[in-house]
Amino acid sequence: xxxxxxxGASGYTGAQLxxxxxxxxxMTLKHVLVSENSAxxxxxMAQVHGNLAHLSQYVLTPLNSxxxxxxxxxxxxxxxxxxxxASHDWMEALSAGKAKVFDLSxxxxxxxxxxxxKHYGFAHTSVDxxxxxxxxxxxxxxxxxxxxxxxxxxxxxxxxxxxxxxxxFNAGLLDTSMRxxxxxxxxxxxxxxxxxxxxxxxxxxxxxxGVLGHRHTPEIEAHLGTQVIFTPHLGNFKRGILATVTVKLxxxxxxxxxxSLYESVYADQPIVRLRESFPKVDDVAHTxxxxxxxxxDAESGYAVVxxxxxxVMKGAASQAMQCANLALGLSATQGLIHGYE
Amino acid sequence: xxxxxxxGASGYTGAQLxxxxxxxxxMTLKHVLVSENSAxxxxxMAQVHGNLAHLSQYVLTPLNSxxxxxxxxxxxxxxxxxxxxASHDWMEALSAGKAKVFDLSxxxxxxxxxxxxKHYGFAHTSVDxxxxxxxxxxxxxxxxxxxxxxxxxxxxxxxxxxxxxxxxFNAGLLDTSMRxxxxxxxxxxxxxxxxxxxxxxxxxxxxxxGVLGHRHTPEIEAHLGTQVIFTPHLGNFKRGILATVTVKLxxxxxxxxxxSLYESVYADQPIVRLRESFPKVDDVAHTxxxxxxxxxDAESGYAVVxxxxxxVMKGAASQAMQCANLALGLSATQGLIHGYE
Amino acid sequence: xxxxxxxGASGYTGAQLxxxxxxxxxMTLKHVLVSENSAxxxxxMAQVHGNLAHLSQYVLTPLNSxxxxxxxxxxxxxxxxxxxxASHDWMEALSAGKAKVFDLSxxxxxxxxxxxxKHYGFAHTSVDxxxxxxxxxxxxxxxxxxxxxxxxxxxxxxxxxxxxxxxxFNAGLLDTSMRxxxxxxxxxxxxxxxxxxxxxxxxxxxxxxGVLGHRHTPEIEAHLGTQVIFTPHLGNFKRGILATVTVKLxxxxxxxxxxSLYESVYADQPIVRLRESFPKVDDVAHTxxxxxxxxxDAESGYAVVxxxxxxVMKGAASQAMQCANLALGLSATQGLIHGYE
Amino acid sequence: xxxxxxxGASGYTGAQLxxxxxxxxxMTLKHVLVSENSAxxxxxMAQVHGNLAHLSQYVLTPLNSxxxxxxxxxxxxxxxxxxxxASHDWMEALSAGKAKVFDLSxxxxxxxxxxxxKHYGFAHTSVDxxxxxxxxxxxxxxxxxxxxxxxxxxxxxxxxxxxxxxxxFNAGLLDTSMRxxxxxxxxxxxxxxxxxxxxxxxxxxxxxxGVLGHRHTPEIEAHLGTQVIFTPHLGNFKRGILATVTVKLxxxxxxxxxxSLYESVYADQPIVRLRESFPKVDDVAHTxxxxxxxxxDAESGYAVVxxxxxxVMKGAASQAMQCANLALGLSATQGLIHGYE
Lengths: 341, 341, 341, 341
What we know:
4 copies of one chain form a homotetramer.
Chain A: E1 2-7, H1 12-22, E2 27-34, H2 45-48, E3 60-62, H3 65-74, E4 77-80, H4 84-94, E5 100-103, H5 113-120, H6 127-132, E6 134-135, H7 142-146, E7 150-152, H8 156-170, E8 181-186, E9 207-208, H9 216-224, E10 229-234, E11 241-248, H10 255-265, E12 272-274, H11 281-284, E13 290-297, E14 302-309, H12 313-327
Parallel strand pairs in A: 1-2, 1-4, 2-3, 4-5, 5-7, 6-7, 8-10, 12-13
Antiparallel strand pairs in A: 8-11, 9-10, 11-14, 13-14
Helix pairs in contact in A: 1-12, 8-9
């Protein structure tokens, strides 16, 4: 059994991680932590998260520097479901011991510190950790993850986008006269657990935001290998992302070319489900799956690929768990899919 | 044309009032105001309320004591869509002139100041105004409203509940061995326009609140004439209230007794629609109507009455407009129902 | 007062038309009709549409050929909220008299009968009517509508898309190396009032459909003047469409170019609201408005334009009313916007 | 490993059962079946249920009389997620062998065949099976379930209602001058997977139905031991039930009496979570839990108890699994709660 800690367990992603760890056959949840001045410190998981009302044995402990060192020395795995700044500041201490660290913030996803500073609003000074960090898009990084000590778990939109686009880019099928156009809609859990007029129930209604400037654009571009136009939207649902990707293909590319390509790339990836029709967000809500479907218009050369994930699961917690499974020497889907493990 | 001001126009009820006044054939909107330290002061209605994006000519003015006096002297009607304390504090000044004042807060709904203090958390010191205030349940107060200078517009839950229950109580049909049981579900607009974890999209899901202690209980009881058990719930929708009322009837009361009773009481009340089946919340959302339907189980003597309103309209703004129409000598439904006016 | 009939009043669009006509200061609703074998024949509007429970005076009459001739001879305006085939078959008779006919189906929107047959599945044989039909995108066809006898009211997606794209195309600002990419999400009312597993509550969740083959693609292309990639989605809300349009602009086009362009094109069009930020679907739900906002990335040359409408209103009924107002010699917004008329 | 079959796997409850069985550490899913003339026969679970897109190995087989006998002889457990009539007709054959049968329809829940015929519309002729059937309210029937061959899995509303009320009734705390008043709201999944105008997305909005006549009333009464007033509502959400129960207590009953009572009754029942505040529907959605909270008004003697379950889980599939676990000699929560099993 591996000993595990979750830092940031008062948020939605932290709660989902806790739930996955508690159900994992080879992990023991040893600590659930929050920042030093969190209003939730001292409460149980049951008190903070209604859906975890049976988990009254886990008390949210406020983090401090002594604890950072202790966790690094004693844990096998540490999940960071924390703000970018906190992950950035704590990574060096947390990764100094035997623990492998899985960071769900954006702090270690961009190797280019200039681009980072522009999009995250502060300078990156944890450069050694940044060098070591493996970008944990699990289906593409199995080998690197096996020896990783620091994992930057991908963002929700990048996960949905990259799983749709990487096969096309890697196979050289994209006509580069036009950037891939990614339109994505996310459920409100993506905004995190906090009071805000923007995400209050009466205010939420389908709307574009972060247009032509969202920080997930450089993340997608860095890990895809080419530039994109990415337009995120807030949707009136709780969980899930649907990314609809429109691309122009190299002349002569056919529907069956893409069929073969996706089948080949994802043949041994049980988390990616190649669907017979365009997926719904609720097909993947509360699951670790990414559902893909695509259609080619041979006449015009355009294709549309849709990619659906649960933003809290494959877009955060269950992808982090895939990474942890691999880093700890387990099967990638351990604790995630019944019957596959 | 009557000159009208709305105080508290940055909230949902204020916005609805503005929209009704702009469309009213005999009213001119002269002022839209907010509290002195509102973050919305200086913005236009268009900037604050996306659905009123065409109303850029109305600028939210911060209120002060000079303005209070000016409004009292120059307006024909003033709508107060303000916190209880603000309405309480400003009423004396606002009602000192020619203006008739329509208060949508809870400040003037309870004549008993002890009960008021217990439920609102502060002592009522505007006792003269409280004496003069008419409780504006429009279908029952047409005469009093015609000469009213201060109107306490009823709360949303009391409106739905009283329109269902008053016919039964007034006709002496309630078996008093059991209190009427009111279960009601409100849309999230009822909580107002503010950031709060409780009303954030991800948190909202059907839930009882204020159980056996909500401040609308004494309001219902005072204006019904008997005690009730009232259990409000927050529902996952934006607008509307459904109140499901269960009562025990005097022995021998039949379905046709209730049919005749409701038809007789509401014969000339176009806002109350007696339905052929149990109403949905969305039948009345964005409308001024109250929909009623009922069923009697003659064998057991129990009956269920359902009452549906839009909490922002009949539960607030459109009922205030009914009151204003009557107080200003117009037809009650002026500006509210096409074809009736 | 103009005498008006609505054919197809048992559907959602028909109900919305009835509600608009009843509130229109210069129209009298004379007939509400359904197809000869409709299950709703003989019922009142109140019985079929819960939100119109106050309209018990309007009885749904089954249509037959005698009535077609009578309506043509006696009505000033006829709204057809009927299936494509019905509109196609009835138009010749309905337009043979004094009545002006406003068809909300797709039967008369495509002048090219080959394209029509491919997308609608039957041959167009009402060619004279098709020749006469004016495409009623009201903001662009005011002159033609004034003398029109047959109006093809635009589809919901084309309305949202064209109001966003026509200024750019007409000004020659589109870089034609890439087709405009239209991603749109529609509320479920767009699917009409009928039992279907696809639109059952439990099944509805954000999903692309009609990918690279939807019949609104040729409609957009015909009335825009260039080809597009259009991907519609079904969203988990009742009313509204958000179209997010991504285009590549001619080199050197700036944000202020587009600002000036949209302001100039829509200066005198009160239905089109140029917003200061990206619009939400609920900003326009239950309203006649189209809300537009745009952003240019000068570096890459790409721009994103968002367009929001209520699919039942500006995407159907209120746009039909704009057309009728113009065709009957009234102001375009009569009966639609309080305060402008 | 126990061999298991699911009959009726094309519905929502059947799909949930399949998902639970596939994840169960001691069960093997051998057959998924549908009725002989189902349109889904021959399809895979993946094709019929988007959320089970990874389960393409399970093909829906049409049931026939030969198969009934084979299943009875070879299976350890059979789940029937079928219409009342089908369960009624097939039970004798299915229960004739070694298999234990868990019926999720209403066919075997009412011992009184007169009451049954009145509420289900057909005469009960499988009387031997009815005699043998154990009502599977798992928290109250652990002993009987251990030796049961036929289990009538309780209805969704009765489960929520009985878990709230049985402690009060059994302890003799109910003042019988008034019937318990149960107001409950169910998500739309409760209506099953079928096309219907009533459950189409645009039509769904909070509404009472089955008022003073729903078939779950006699089921609650039979298994509680006293009469109730039960008013179900359809809510605008996919999964879950919230039952709000209002009762009058024997004079002198206090909050702490109820606190002690519920804690004592459910001390060893991990599926029932006694909450510190009133539960939300989404606290239990997609979980096997029943969440309870209560409040007493000592002055009036009334109390309100709220009970939340997922109608597809504790209201159907996961309760059936609790029953199966017990009947097969396993721990009740096996395969249901991580960490407890």
